[in-house]
Amino acid sequence: MKTIRTLVAFASAAALLSACGGGGNDVGKELGLQNPLIHFVHALPGGPNVDFLVNGSPLQSNIGYKQVTNFANINTGNTNVAYANTGSTTAIASGNFPDVAKGHEYTVLALPALTGGDIGLIDDPFDKGLLSNDARVRAFNATVNAQNLDIYIVAAGTNIANVSPTMAGVAFKNAVPASGQDSNYLSGGTYVAIVTVAGSKTPIFQSDTFNLANNADWLITTVPIGGTLSQLAPGQIHLLVAQGGNTSQPAVELSNTLTNQ
Question: Keywords of this protein's UniProt record, alphabetized (predicted)?
Fold first, then answer.
């Protein structure tokens, strides 16, 4: 449960709202006042367009591969989620958030499986400081064909030999930081993403440089390189970036600069 805030925090929030001309989504999340928000990431390569179901009813429809839906409000409490072929309510895969809470962000991912589809769930308590403009970053492993992964978000040219992973030991169907924990915080700037098998310093993926903006909210998801599940090859991955926000958008695919991938 989100920590109870003091009257000082409310005063700070009021000052921030005044300074920003009335905007306050992040303030509402941080103080645990905003209704829970949920969105869906289609990370199932070769999968059909789907409808995202909440408690058995479609919340968002006709979602294609790599699409990230806009955040939507949901009620607190026990919440069942699923996805189904568009126009159907027969779940391809389903899951449950037992205690949806105000101020939290929830992510549901359609994932590949060796046969059919799977589901991933993330509960993000959004414990960002009221005065912070750092970017929030989390990783999720949706690569059924990959081992546990280490992910580095570092400046271009960094030798990772003596650097700790930004997100270490990311296992299939799991997030780092884990569901229920707050995201990592990074200063805005220019970075590259490097992925290795956990414990190794040999990259299996290295991106071009990219800009991580202040106040960005990123979920970096590893997905199989093949366009269909029949094309799975060990260690062959893409990185998709699902950017938090209230506008429906495709995930951004980071290109791999390694010639053997």
Answer: Signal
